[in-house]
Design goal:
There is one protein chain. It contains seven helices and five strands. The chain has helices at about 5-10, 25, 30-45, 100-105, 110-115, 125-140, 145-165; strands at about 65, 70-80, 80-85, 90-95, 120-125. It has a five-stranded mixed β-sheet with strand order 3-2-1-4-5.
Length: about 170
């Protein structure tokens, strides 16, 4: 979906600072405030998959999520039927920009495409990373509460349009 014609035509999206400029502001937000948001969002989705046999492959395993342009990083694990913060290094990590991770979460683009274009990278235990990616791909979209789906879709589209507004055109 494209940005509203008036916004795109007048270049107002260029006034939205890129996520990398949000980094100093987010550095002031205590990590204890951000972690529960990430835990809750991932738990909502994965709870719907709890009966999937692949879920047994991630129990007590540490996986990382890194938002490069914001300098945010979490090590998480599936424990007691939900995603929680974990101690120690991640066994596998998914890394990308806020925009690309939002596009993935909102299902605006296929995970394979984002990894192939190197917008997202997977490091560490490849098998664990692929199990996680495949679980997220099979996640029933309707298991995510409607309000969260709307925020994901609109937020990802806005971030994608803002990124395009900041990039020079290749004519």
């Amino acid at each position: 979906m494209k940005a509203a014609p008036g916004i795109a035509r007048h270049g107002l999206l260029r006034l939205v600072p890129p996520p990398s400029r949000w980094r100093p502001l987010l550095a002031r937000v205590p990590a204890l405030w951000l972690a529960p948001v990430v835990e809750r969002a991932l738990s909502h989705g994965l709870v719907a998959m709890r009966d999937d046999p692949s879920m047994q492959l991630i129990v007590q395993r540490r996986f990382g999520l890194e938002i490069e342009d914001l300098g945010l990083r979490w090590v998480l694990q599936w424990r007691d039927g939900r995603v929680v913060q974990a101690e120690g290094p991640a066994e596998a990590s998914i890394r990308g920009t806020l925009t690309d991770l939002a596009i993935l979460a909102a299902r605006l683009e296929d995970a394979d495409t984002l990894f192939f274009k190197r917008h997202l990278t997977l490091t560490g235990d490849t098998e664990l990373g692929l199990v996680l990616r495949n679980l997220l791909d099979r996640l029933p979209w309707t298991s995510i509460p409607l309000g969260e789906r709307i925020v994901l879709q609109r937020g990802a589209r806005f971030l994608r349009a803002a990124r395009a507004a900041h990039r020079p055109r290749a004519d």
